[in-house]
């Protein structure tokens, strides 16, 4: 059984989500399927086969924080997962490991499962800092978390069409495995053509998929490649 999670970012619509859920309801799979959608789609039609997740959460539980959504509110919607620390949040919203950690703690306290993202930039990779960056992100972002999923997403591989090599993924996942017993996902330009090979790598428990999770024609081959 693998975990196959989609991250829709600011894409899709309620109608597209409905039709994706209908398609996925019909397929025969043992895998754990998750789709992480914009907040406005969290109240979508429910399915026993597919879990819904959010893509971010507030560090606050309630109060005067205009525009924020709390973990409890996400839980009330029926969602089960929340992505925290996606590189786009770290990069464009200056989220530090400490902020990511606070968000993940709120998620867990609300009975939801955090999907904590980590990953090195191209500059860090080229400077030979991949392992130290990842160790720092994993240790600080998951501090005090009893349960979580960890997604390794090299920043240079997200939405670029570049995928880490099998050896790179194997090496980083082996390194992370020594730091945590959490389920480990790989993310970064995963598609039907490479997902089978990626998910057969030791210590890869599933994938986090951006662009190729938006349309059934792209997402189904990934699910079927396990
Ligand atoms: C992502 O945004 O988490 C991601 C992996 O995107 P993509 O699959 O499009 O590279």
Concise structural overview:
With 226 residues, this protein is an alpha/beta fold. The protein has a single domain (3-224), classed as TIM Barrel, CATH 3.20.20.70. It has 9 helices and 8 strands.
Model description:
By secondary structure, this protein is of the alpha/beta class. It has one domain: TIM Barrel (Alpha-Beta Barrel), CATH 3.20.20. It has nine helices and eight strands. It has helices at 14-26, 71-76, 87-92, 97-109, 122-126, 130-141, 166-177, 192-199, 216-224; strands at 3-7, 32-36, 50-54, 81-84, 113-118, 149-152, 183-187, 206-209. The chain has an eight-stranded parallel beta barrel, surrounded by six helices. Helix 8 (192-199) packs parallel to helix 9 (216-224). It is globular and about 45 Å long. The N and C termini lie close together (8 Å). The relative contact order is 0.16. The model has no long low-confidence stretch (mean pLDDT 96). Phosphoenolpyruvate binds next to strand 8.
Counting structural domains, the number is 1
CATH class: Alpha Beta
Query: Could you tell me how far the N terminus lies from the C terminus, measured between alpha carbons in angstroms?
Result: 8 Å
Strands ordered across the widest β-sheet:
1-2-3-4-5-6-7-8
Structural class: alpha/beta
Strand-and-helix sequence, N→C? EHEEHEHHEHHEHEHEH
In the predicted model, the low-confidence regions spanning at least 5 consecutive residues are none
What can be said about the biggest beta sheet?
A: 8 strands, parallel, barrel
CATH topology-level name: TIM Barrel
CATH homologous superfamily descriptor:
Aldolase class I
Mean pLDDT: 96
Q: Give the name of the CATH architecture.
A: Alpha-Beta Barrel
Number of helices: 9
Number of extended strands: 8
Gyration radius from CA atoms, angstroms: 16 Å
The residue fraction in helices comes out at 25-40%
Bound small-molecule species: phosphoenolpyruvate
| Portion in strands | 15-25%
Tell the overall outline: globular
